[in-house]
Design a protein that fits this description.
With 280 residues, the protein is an alpha/beta fold. It folds into 2 domains: 149 residues, no CATH class; 118 residues, STAS domain (Transcription Regulator spoIIAA), CATH 3.30.750. The protein is built from 12 helices and 12 strands. The protein has a 6-stranded mixed β-sheet. A two-stranded parallel ribbon has the order 1-4. It is globular.
């Protein structure tokens, strides 16, 4: 079944925004624009002025323009030509992200995306809904374009904002669960038959995309793996997804044994050189 281009673009753009250091003036500006419509309008209309007011210092001679994703206008930015990136073919990954990574090493594909992207998108399993305008543009040395995510629906915003952030209080000292953002959770410690149920209660609160950072896991039981698969199926049924980040080797080996690498979306964010290729 083809993936929806808009959804894939929205997810990738969120990754790009979240990759900027939130303590850096530029990273802070990008995050604030997600909840401040006045700031968003300023970035779209007068980016240099808005960035200057926020204390953003660009490299000498650099310019940054902003666009916003929408269902009717899907603009995707390619990193500067010549920046090599790699991507594992072992895992399920965002198909748009995979296509962009391929284009970084294939000048013919890159040119096709820039001039006539329809066939390349189709071959990548990406479906364009309706009559949306689709365009690829490229960053060049000193000239950058940042595409900001489309706004979430009021209903989804309400649900995400109602989630209590921070470390979850629980009855076990074997696991620490932290809702860092409404769409991002870290888990440290041991996931066994007891703590898997604690983690399930937290994941059941989400009916939106969730990134689950498992970099601090020491042990992950079969009950925990079953819970991950059930959560992915539940979210997938409503058009959302569970993504596992920084999966430790001890868990990765088990996922391979159970042949779940083709079921669960997995990324190692620390090795994500495609994301890094967009930063300046």
């Amino acid at each position: 079944m083809p993936d929806d281009l808009f959804i894939s673009a929205q997810r990738f753009i969120k990754d790009l925004v979240n990759a900027w250091n939130p303590e850096d003036p530029f990273g802070k500006l990008l995050r604030e624009a997600g909840s401040d419509s006045t700031l968003l309008s300023r970035l779209l209309e007068s980016p240099a002025e808005a960035m200057a007011d926020a204390g953003v210092e660009l490299p000498d001679g650099a310019t940054v323009d902003f666009k916003q994703l929408s269902n009717s206008d899907i603009t995707t930015v390619l990193p500067e030509a010549g920046k090599s990136v790699s991507m594992s073919s072992e895992f399920i990954v965002n198909p748009l992200k995979k296509l962009i990574a391929q284009a970084q090493g294939d000048s013919s594909l890159r040119e096709q995306l820039l001039t006539s992207p329809g066939e390349a998108l189709k071959q990548a399993g990406l479906e364009i809904a309706g009559d949306a305008n689709v365009a690829f543009i490229e960053n060049t040395a000193g000239n950058y374009t940042i595409v900001l995510p489309a706004p979430e629906s009021a209903e989804r915003n309400e649900k995400m904002n109602s989630l209590k952030l921070g470390i979850v209080a629980n009855t076990s000292q074997e696991i620490t669960i932290d809702w860092v953002r409404p769409d991002y959770m870290t888990v440290n410690g041991t996931v066994d038959s007891e703590t898997a149920s604690i983690l399930r209660v937290e994941l059941d609160k989400a009916d939106f995309d969730v990134d689950l950072n498992l970099g601090g896991i020491k042990f992950f039981s079969s009950q925990g793996i079953g819970m991950l698969v059930r959560t992915e199926k539940r979210l997938g049924a409503i058009g959302c997804r569970l993504r596992l980040l920084n999966v430790p080797e001890v868990l990765m080996n088990v996922l391979k044994i159970f042949r779940l690498l083709a079921v669960l979306e997995i990324e190692n964010r620390s090795d994500d050189d495609l994301i890094q290729a967009y930063q300046f």
